[in-house]
């Protein structure tokens, strides 16, 4: 999935039944967070299906598996007919590329070597059916341009679709031409360099960065550009977005205030905005303000260049971990933050030009980050992954580090080890939140590669990070022992807001 | 699932989305192999679903998850209405108990504390709708009795439904009254003590035990009692079963030769057979025969009491592992064999009275055994689990041993470590079958408990087993290094037959 | 539909929407009573469907109509792809011929002149997939033969499937060889000549002919051959059929007592029975009995040759109508009895060799008979239709007689005119049962052809029938005025039994 | 259905199977053209359904009928549970009233007398869920008002939803306040009195009235108010509507130019427009123009008050029929025009204040008008129906006039008798278009009431109409013999356009 996010398309090949049903959750995440993954599953031969009703791996009927994947893909097919196979494959690939979501292709065992018959009636042209209605496009562009030009303090919130539809260069062009400041969401973090002078931060309602919130919520023209508005991106619905002031642009529709345009492709609309007559802003006048983009970027620059003061022997804290990591991030690093405090605190990491930040910020499936680091580095070998993961999430999938060894990959894995499912604990206390302890630093001994570091103090952390950065042969894992009550300010805000919402809705 | 197999019902509680979709494969196995598991999933509140279309964890629509579970359960419900909740719960539990398959109950967050309204209109009586048609039952019983009495060498194949429907005592009663010999299938192995004087072995066509095959296939009256006839239980369709000589008894229907009876409950039919006037056999006359049940049981008794000759320093082999394990099995042990050679070779282990053998013999999902040992010992703490698992399967789920530590369980885990997906390799060679090596004996150091043994020779194996049996505080793990070409005779026969079938059907 | 019953396949071509939805009820009847009808519907062009969402005649979606027909056909298709069209057409025709039920083919307007592409991969061979399992066939034949031979008084009930699957000659062969007496049901009436010496009458439980009932219910071996067991054929469930004594043969399955055989084609089974070693009965010994087949046939012969005594000026009665018609029936006549007393009393008409009797005896849709007479005579122009129809049913479809004029057909239509929905009135009285009177004898003046007769007395009826038989140019219609309380003994028995059942089940 | 159009809700009670499936086409029309009809079908008792799989009238499964109605209703239910019955009935009635479309309620026979249990949890409040989003409503109202005020020649096209949602008074208020001219469609004809000074005619593209077309298509602001845009209302897509100048208001959505508003109830929006600050137009300045509303209304007034010149003995023509009818229409008459030339020519009839015009102008199902006249007069007994129907349509349902006699209704039925399916003939010639002739004027003799008139000349028509208007005891029927080549100018234009479209799309 993460390979797909970086490369634009990913493929997974699986066994019928026992293989396929193990990737359901991952496919669901790819659907929910829009990653175009091609799932190719084997299946019993068509003739065997007729003759032998009880083949092993079969669950119920031979089409049970397809029916399940139908729920979590945008298109699916069984390649049973050589006359239609070419057309079907094209149809499915187009769907994956158009909707940026997974597709499912089932290949019965006895057709693997069959030649495709017939002409290719519909050669793959994924843009074919996406042309915008030119009149609607024109009207919407004019209306949006007028609304932006009439505003005093417009702001852009750039979302994950900017990344999925490869619109990052166009976003930069739009910002450069208009000088409109831009925020990101937690799901789209790093869609733009966070040291860009017009970047104002991660907007997440009352849960996110306070200055970004003030800037966004005091704007008189909010341009939401490809951002899903979920409970998480809206900071547990603490976000104060006034629809009357909003231009909402997504792959599904374009909305201006309370009305909508259909049949406009998001790419066409962004291109049109770049070419439109939007006035260039002069942010210099407001640069004295404490919350001007320039000020905010300068603050981030300061943070990114400040190494926190290290006290020898002092117990390590979440705060120190992220401050120190902030000072170490380099252009060639990609950060993979798993669900939990790794993600919430990770929102405050400052992503340099060319750095990347990947997370399951909407679907929030634990155990995302370690496998993601493998996919990401395989997709782009010039990247060095930095994985930040809680101990709960690591226990689910962390042993995949042996795959990192197999393919000579070298992620740095920081395990935030507090012995507890912290996010859950903050909502409902109980012994079920306790984790069985593991010696994460000893994993290299089991899987025969990598280096492990036990970290209990600030200086140990500095040393471990330093060694890990220098050790490029294989992965490094840092077992960072944290106090169970320690947590990031971001998580603190979030869990309070979740609790508040739950109590309200229960009454 | 394995808890459910031992206790008659199991329950799993899961989070909406990310939790639920991770148990799809396991639920599918429970469906395919008939284990009654109650799946209770949380869900967003009904009101939240209306107001907030984009809650985290949601994949597509709020009912996407239920639609998926509909495919792999016998009944499902969303408890949204307090007036019907009691009725719905009863309906679902009845379905689980009647069909011995999983059910799905979804519980929106905002109804958790709601009181159930209305009268319990249909108190739970799972036998209610299962009464047999008395005339059909009578006719079928008479016909089966006549056919058995007319036969010279009837034989019973007892299947997994005998276990699922708790008919083991009735099976024993039937055998004791009639003295008819009995075989089992690989999926039902241990449904009867394998030291019972009338037990003749595991029947699996040309793939299974040869003497059992001869006995079964030369019988003139085959009583198949609750056994699924899949490609695996039929030894890749090498089984020679003559429908003209067969009485087939299952939860779905009762068949005699080429005709069928509907509306007969399997339990009623077994009860009726026990009470029927079936003649008592005298097997003594044939006891001279080399393949009489008595002879076969004596052979197994000899095997079970023979410790194989141990050569100091001699490389360990699959054959030695199983011969030695056979000599160690005691009444309080339960064997959990994962898919692969662990299962196929495991078929030759001799299960004593009260011992158990659990395997994914139909669904064949790798990674079954370690988690199953935890469920099994939790279900019955008097049991000591013996897990036999290949290295490929262990890499999928073996780290669950930390859960064994958490609950003070003490399985003995024998890892058959040959560095390769052997079963796959025998079908199609290639580097994708190679496994990344791990030091399984060092896992106790990572998860903080248990004992590890590195085993390369026969004497090391004897010592390790001996120590593991004496060490009862926590799990033991034996990393048994095998030659990559080593395999059990059973696997050899199986893969040859799979290959043969595949080549035939491709032509 | 009636054309299809006589010719083996019928076709109806209809307009999309307003045409198609008007034949739903008729298609449903064809499904319920097994008539193979090909429904070909036009549809908007595929391209128009894309471009123009609101074409006239469209109800909801463009596939709404197909979804409706899916419910009442055994197979359906939209011919949208020239590559698969040939295969699809073959598939559908096979289904119609195999299951004797309707199919639905939709033809978009813009593909009408498209050439079919590709090879005919599956040439039409409707017998291909119907071969019986030879072992099951053999076992079932032996078992049935033994059971019949062991019986003292076996009897056959021949049903409508004998007609639909063209097994009438085989039935005759079976009877001739074995001399087993045969009954029919009200739905299969005339499946065998009712003057055949072994025919014993229409069996319909307590509602049908008493002597037939006695014969059937005292039999010790009941061979039900292709008869649907519905509430009507079972005489509102007054039939006393003992499953222990029954061999039940149908297109769906073969049952003997309480067990069933799958995978036996009804045709193969009848052929096998004809060739089997079933003993020839000697019915002469019992010919003295008052209810021997010979006696019963002689009684029918007497009835069929007796002209009832006509009293000049005496008001006509239902009893007289049918007695007189019985004396007029000739070999070239086909009787079409509509639902209501026409059908129930019609059961007592004696069908000669080669005569036919068609009715909606299961689906019981009023208004069947007049249109059916047109289809029947078009299918076989050597037949002369005799339509017996109540005034209620006639008001629904009787004006179709103008179609009879158009195609030079000459049915004789006897309208049983009592001014009321009599069958309904007997169940629940009320003014809604009253019919608005019409002057049926004047219809020829409106539609410009045919002859009308007003009949109030016995002599008028004799004269009218006589003139109608001689007038062969066009239809004749007899408006037979009956007393509202007059009814046939058969209807009397039926409505009493319906009322009894309704009261029981309501308590 | 027509009762429902006049009264706001209609009910039909039907027998299971044979009754229900005969109203499929009518229900489909009610769905397509938005008439709220409640269909109540009986069904076998729930217990009978379990016990007796083969009850007469059943087609396939017991739920087959419901599945069919699911396709052509907005909601359906089976009242099987007394605990939920009250809620279900409310839910369905709300759906019918909200969407103005049919619903389906199935009532098993054995629950008819069951008492409803439980509280009425959701008392019927059909407005409950329809409140508009106030912000969207406000924005849309302001935008529409601005657009209308900025236009020079705005015009309203009032459609059938104005009638279905009972917005006729509001429409009048809007026109009176703003003096904006108004057109209707052929489906909404008579939604406003056609003598209203601001009414400009029926707009139907190139197929409709030319002056109305000019007026509408030269407008710079088109307010489409509740009109379906189908191929027929758009004059076979000859209508030239410029979306850039259009405000489109419907029950589904509100659109302005190329954008849309969701969540605005059509009623709220019309109310808001009436109260909005829309400028009052002064049409007097343009009254000199030949196509001003005043001029057009004066033309219609002239037509409506001109009796065409009658030539004694001259063959009657379509043109004369409609001109003469125009001069006879009075305020208490309702015109029911069947599909075909009756409808197309009928578009030119001038509907006075309070008169009505009902037609199947979208669904175009032949045979609509005679039954519709019965429903209409039963719904409002102060109306006198004038039915205009072709001979083809009349042959389908005309005998329902006997129902008119039963209920003392007195429609005047004008049969346009040309012996042919004229509309079909114009598209594709062939003998299948010929109709079997009938003597329609003699129908009164058959059904025992009403008066018939044979009309071949203009003077005969005048006399017959005159007598029919004076004869109020029962129906009158005029059999108007037309030349087969005679047709209205409207039909001429229509068929030419259909033919043009078909030829284009075939190429």
Quick recap:
Chain A has 507 residues and is an alpha/beta fold. In chain A, 37% of the residues lie in helices and 16% in strands. The first copy, chain A, has helices at 2-7, 24-32, 46-51, 64-70, 85-99, 134-150, 160-164, 168-178, 210-217, 266-275, 293-305, 318-328, 341-346, 369-379, 391-397, 401-406, 422-427, 443-447, 458-470, 489-506; strands at residues 10-14, 37-43, 75-78, 103-108, 154-158, 182-184, 199-202, 221-225, 246-249, 254-256, 259-261, 333-337, 356-358, 384-390, 412-417, 451-455, 476-481.
Structure description:
Four copies of one chain form a homotetramer. The first copy, chain A, is α/β, with parallel strands linked by helices. Chain A has helices spanning 2-7, 24-32, 46-51, 64-70, 85-99, 134-150, 160-164, 168-178, 210-217, 266-275, 293-305, 318-328, 341-346, 369-379, 391-397, 401-406, 422-427, 443-447, 458-470, 489-506; strands spanning 10-14, 37-43, 75-78, 103-108, 154-158, 182-184, 199-202, 221-225, 246-249, 254-256, 259-261, 333-337, 356-358, 384-390, 412-417, 451-455, 476-481. In chain A, the strands form three sheets. In chain A, strands 7-6-5-8-9-10-11 form a seven-stranded mixed β-sheet, with helices on both faces. A six-stranded parallel β-sheet of chain A has the order 13-12-14-15-17-16, with helices on both faces. A four-stranded parallel β-sheet of chain A has the order 1-2-4-3, sandwiched between helices. The first copy, chain A, is globular. The model of chain A has no long low-confidence stretch (mean pLDDT 88). The interface between A and B is large, with 60 and 60 residues.
